[in-house]
Amino acid sequence: MFSFLRPYIFNLDPEKAHKLAISSLKYNLLPESLFKVENEEILSINLFGKSIKNPIGLAAGFDKSAEVYNQMFKIGFGFVEVGTVTPNKQYGNPKPRVFRLEKDSALINRLGFNNDGSDLVKKRIENNLPKSLLGINIGPNKATKDMSQDFLSCAETFFPLGDYITINISSPNTEGLRDFHKKEVLKELLIKINQIREKSSFRKSFLLKISPDLNEKNIDEIINLILEYKIDGIILTNTTDRNRDNLLSNNSIETGGLSGKPLRSLSTKLIKRFYKDLKGKASIIGVGGIDSGKSAFEKIAAGATALQLYTGMVYGGPMVIKEIKKDLIKILNEQGFRNIKEAIGSYS
């Protein structure tokens, strides 16, 4: 059905198409049985203290304001990350701000954290409890005077609700945000984040989502900080504002974060790098260019415990999750792995 509808969907502005997708999912019409696969139990993993059916997650950016996360579990995702959520509702950057690069199976966006704000998102989650692992991606408002305080405000709001909180320091579309990759700036933030965790009477996980556009010094410093401050996981990676040289689509000239297939090898290399130095002390979630079982397995074998996709679903439709699961199971069987856990880091 998606193959039939795709030309019509792709004639729409990308944001209008996205709004249509969110609205359609709210009707909850598709039967869960449509997305089941045989032998999915070999894909089951434990992630941040919760057992989930498979390691394929929905990346932040699709369900920005926590409207359809339970519907996304229904179509086959093992976990979902909502957001990026900011303390106050904001419109984001001026339109147009999302661009398809069809020849490259990619997107460029400069959305700027458009979302309904933490109060409304909190109410939605409280009134519609998640049916599987839910992550909440947080960030600062564009007009804030103190980005660190915005992170802390959202962390305190969502710490009781999410299975994990992702501190998004990596979007290229909010001025000054990537300064948090600097050692001293990030260190100060992580100290404060840990204070929130320590004064709580329950244990939830904190993750960092970082940029793919880092140098070796940045990488070494971030790895050391993750270990020192016991950050539970890292998402590799957000979009890139580089890597444009070999793109074929006219929209490649647009500014913003590039996602999809052009990010595939860049993020996989970073996964291998972090897996080698983290030595299992923090989980890695691999993102970037996942659109098939083969591209998913590459990241698992490089060291990712779990995966996230978004752009792959834009081009492949909702059934792409089912196809990825089927192909992953086939690859695991062919290579002699009894389950997905055995394959983690097998190529590193």
Describe this structure in words.
The protein has about 350 residues and is an alpha/beta fold. The protein has a single domain (about 55-340), classed as Alpha-Beta Barrel (TIM Barrel), CATH 3.20.20.70. It is about 35% helix and about 15% strand. The protein is built from twelve helices and 13 strands. It has helices spanning about 1-10, 15-25, 70-75, 120-125, 145-160, 185-200, 215-230, 265-280, 295-300, 310-315, 320-335, 340-345; strands spanning about 45, 50, 55-60, 80-85, 100, 105-110, 135-140, 165-170, 205-210, 235, 255-260, 285, 305-310. The strands form three sheets. The chain has an eight-stranded parallel β-barrel. It has a three-stranded antiparallel β-sheet with strand order 5-6-11, with no helix packed on it. Strand 7, helix 5 and strand 8 (about 165-170) form a beta-alpha-beta unit. The model has no long low-confidence stretch (mean pLDDT about 95).
